[in-house]
Design a protein that fits this description.
Blueprint: E1 2-6, H1 17-30, E2 34-37, H2 46-55, E3 61-64, E4 67-68, H3 74-88, E5 92-97, H4 101-106, H5 114-133, E6 142-148, E7 153-159, E8 168-172, H6 176-185, E9 188-192, H7 196-213, E10 220-229, H8 235-246, H9 255-261, H10 267-270, E11 272-274, H11 276-289, E12 293-298, H12 306-314
Parallel strand pairs: 1-2, 1-12, 2-3, 3-5, 4-5, 5-8, 8-9, 9-10, 10-11, 10-12
Antiparallel strand pairs: 6-7
Helix pairs in contact: 1-2, 2-3, 3-5, 5-6, 6-7, 7-11
Length: 318
């Protein structure tokens, strides 16, 4: 199991671009496998943040978790992703997802048939990325992406000079229909607030089975979890603080489904919070559950901040 870290704030105030750069440099120096940025209503643009992270680093993998599909036409997002990848000179991991009804409604957009929408969206992304890597003509460096689905229909020129296949296309998914679609058309899943039990029982079987039926390679099983490494004496208080901050998720779909499927009884205990020994134990549990990529989203609480959690987490030997 690889361990990545968010370099743009996932839970608190959004990170300015300079902080994204500084954290990315530090994450690479500490030896993390990957650096991730979210897409949040109060944060810097995810694609710009990925480019900023990639331009100041050399080796660390760069990814988004996750960009809401209702806000971007799939051909536009494919072009943005390919451009960022070309700019930083190495593959990126494009994480996308349908967001949730409340966030989509805030933007004045409908939230309808999310699993079908994401399936078709990723199919268009796959077609565009493939075409961009093998252009059909010298003038526009383009060909046509043609797609006729139930939620998306298009017949458009698409070209990307110097385009290459993305490192991966991943989908933020939790519910059974979304997990099925994810395994069928993408390179893997990004599961948020899913503990070891939910990963093992709810996420892994559905995504792997769907990928196998579709003839796809073994999927990435990534998880985003609030993470804080604190002194042992502070651990329970830190978990209580996480519960107070994130407890509202327990009553909101789709996260309620995740909490119900978890071994933990409350979301504060799903968070990976504790001293180095406890966090090492939790990481081992995620690995045994089938997770391939643990994406730590540092949670600032008394006794821990981004820098201290990143430093301590990097020293844990799996």
């Amino acid at each position: 199991m690889k361990v990545g870290i968010f370099v743009s704030e996932a839970w608190g105030a959004g990170s300015p671009i300079e902080e994204v750069r500084e954290r990315s440099i530090r994450a690479e120096a500490l030896g993390f496998a990957s650096a991730w940025v979210p897409y949040l209503p109060w944060a810097a643009d995810a694609m710009a943040s990925m480019q900023a992270a990639g331009e100041v680093t050399e080796r660390i993998e760069i990814g988004s978790a996750v960009i809401p599909t209702p806000f971007f036409h799939p051909l536009a997002l494919a072009r943005q992703a390919a451009t960022v990848q070309a700019a930083i000179g190495r593959p990126i991991h494009l994480g996308v997802g349908c967001s949730n009804p409340a966030i989509v409604a805030m933007h004045g957009l409908p939230f309808e048939r999310p699993a079908r929408h994401v399936r078709e969206y990723v199919e268009v992304l796959n077609a565009a990325v493939s075409l961009g890597a093998k252009p059909g003509g010298p003038r526009e460096q383009a060909g046509f992406v043609e797609y006729e689905g139930e939620t998306i229909a298009l017949n458009s020129i698409y070209g990307m000079p110097g385009g290459q296949a993305l490192g991966s296309i991943l989908v933020g998914a939790i519910g059974p229909m979304m997990l099925e679609a994810t395994g069928s058309v993408s390179d893997g899943v990004i599961a948020t607030w899913s503990d070891e039990g939910a990963i093992a029982r709810m996420v892994v079987p559905v995504v792997r089975d769907a990928a196998a039926r579709a003839g796809r390679a073994d999927p990435t099983i990534a998880g985003v979890i609030a993470t804080a490494i604190v002194p042992k004496a502070r651990a329970e208080a830190a978990r209580d603080a996480a519960q107070a901050e994130f407890g509202f998720y327990e009553q909101n779909l789709p996260y309620k489904r995740v909490v119900d499927a978890s071994d933990a009884e409350r979301i504060g205990d799903i968070a990976v919070i504790g001293d180095e020994e406890e966090v090492a134990r939790r990481l081992a549990g995620f690995r045994e559950a089938g997770m391939t990529d643990f994406l730590a989203a540092p949670y600032s609480v008394e006794g821990a901040d981004w820098a201290s959690t990143a430093e301590r987490l990097s020293k844990i030997d799996l």
